[in-house]
Amino acid sequence: MLKVAVIGTGYVGLVSGTCLAEFGNHVTCVDVDASKIARLTQGEVPIYEPGLDVLIKSNVAKGYLSFTTDLAASVSQADVVFIAVGTPTRPSDGHADLTYVMQAAEGIAKSLNGYTVVVTKSTVPVGTGRQVEARIRQTNPHAHFDMASNPEFLREGSAVEDFMEPDRVVVGAGSHEAEEIMRQLYRPLYLLATPMLFTTLESAELIKYAANAFLATKIAFINEMADLCERCGADIQDVSMGMGMDNRIGRAFLHAGPGYGGSCFPKDTLALAQTATDLQAPATIVDAVIAANKKRRTTMVNKIVRACGGSVSGKTIGILGVTFKPNTDDMRDSPSLDIIPALQKMGASIQVFDPQGYKEGHELLPGVKWCNDSYNALTGVDGAVLLTEWNEFRALDLEKMTSLMKTPLLIDLRNVYRPKDFENLNCTYVCVGRQPLKGAAEQSEAVA
C-alpha cells in the first residue's frame, strides 16, 4: 500500500486519485482552491462523471481518500506525487501552458521528504518531464526523487471504467527504482493482465499526443468522407462500417458529425503541431486536421441555414445537446460554442436542452433560452438541431416531436436516426453523409 499525493483536483486528478484509492492506496488530493476542497470534503463532486461520486464516497468512508489544500504536508508523506494540473493552450502560440505544472514542481520541491517518485499525469509536451526535474533540483538540490511520466487515456463519460479497466498503462520511468514503484502502484491492473509499457520519459509524453492526434485525424477524415458521400450518393454509415471492419483501421472514431471538441483533442493537436514545428519536424498531417476541424464548424452552420431555407433570421431553432459529448458536463471546445453564436449572429433565436450542459453553458452561451426537457426545447421551433448524442435523444417520440414544431424539420448532426424513421412522418430529416427521404435538396446543398 502506497501513500499518494495528487496535485490538482480537476478532471484528471480527481478521477485518477479516486481510482488509485480504490486500488487500496492512501491518496490525498490537493488543490489551491479552498472552496473546491471544501465541497469535495462535504461529498459534493464538482464534475459530472458517471460512477465517480459513488467511488469518492466509498473511499472517503474507508479512509483511503482525502482532500486538502496543504501541499507540503501531503507531499512530505507521499511515496508517489502526481502532477495533474491544467495545461491549457497558450493563446499566443498554441503551445501548452506549463505555468501550473512548474508551480506545482516548485511546491513539490520544497516539500519532498525522503525518496519520492514525481509523476507527470497532466498532458504535457515532449521534454516537460526533464524540465520539471530540473526545476525541482534547482529549487531543492538535496531532493531525493526520480521522475516518471504516466499519461492518462480517460474518455469523459467513461473515465472510471477507463481507469479501472484500461487498454494499456504507459509509464516513462527515469530509473529502475521508479519503475518498480509504479509497477507496485498499478499491481491490481497487472494481476488482471493489463498491457503495460515501460519506456522513457520522452516516449511516454509523445505517446499521449500521438494517440490523440491520430484519433482526431480519424474524425476529420470521416467528416470529409461524409461530405463526399453527400455529393456522390453514398452512405457514410455504410462507408464507416466497411472501413471499420478492417482490423488495421478499427471502428472507433469513424462517426461523422460536427467535429471534435473537448478538453483533449483541440489543445493536444495544437500543442503537438507547435512542438513539431519548433523541433523542425513539421506535422503537416496534424496541421491539416486542425484546419479541417475548424472548417467543420462553419460547414455545419451552413448546413443548418440551408436546411432552414437559406436564412435563420427571425426563426427559432431548438438545440438538443450542447456539451462536447454525452455523459459529461464539459463544454470545453464544444461545437455548440461556435454553432449557436453563429446562428444567433444571423438573427436566430435559440432554445436549448442538455441534461448536464446548463452548469457551464448558461454563461458560455448568453442569450439562449434554457428548457427543462427535449420536448420543451422543440415546442414552436422553425427547426431542430441534434448536436450532442445523449441517450435520451435517441428515443424521442418522433410523432410528438413533429406535432410540437412550428416547422417540422430535424437536422441530425450525429446521425442518431435513420432516414426511414421519418418515412411516414410529415417532417423533413437532414443528416450527415446520407441521403434523407425528405429534404434532399437541403442535404445536397449542405457542403456547397
Q: Concise description?
A:
This protein is an alpha/beta fold and 448 residues long. The chain is 44% helix and 13% strand.
Notes on the protein architecture:
- With 448 residues, the protein is an alpha/beta fold.
- The chain has two domains: 3-198, NAD(P)-binding Rossmann-like Domain (Rossmann fold, 3-Layer(aba) Sandwich), CATH 3.40.50.720; 200-448, Rossmann fold.
- The chain contains 18 helices and 14 strands.
- α10 crosses α12.
- It is elongated and about 75 Å long.
- The model is unreliable at 439-448 (pLDDT under 50).
CATH superfamily of the largest domain: NAD(P)-binding Rossmann-like Domain
Report the end-to-end length measured between terminal Cα atoms: 61 Å
Low-confidence parts, pLDDT < 50 over ≥5 residues? 439-448
Main-sheet strand order equals 3-2-1-4-5-6-7-8
Largest sheet: 8 strands, mixed
Kindly give the count of domains. 2
Which value, in Å, is the CA radius of gyration?
A: 24 Å
CATH topology (level 3) name of the largest domain: Rossmann fold
Q: From the helix content, strand content and strand pairing, which structural class follows?
A: alpha/beta
Number of helices: 18
CATH architecture of the largest domain: 3-Layer(aba) Sandwich
Oligomer type: single chain
CATH class of the largest domain: Alpha Beta
The share of residues in helices is 40-55%
Give the beta-strand count: 14
Shape: elongated
Average residue pLDDT? 94
Q: Indicate the proportion of strand residues.
A: 5-15%
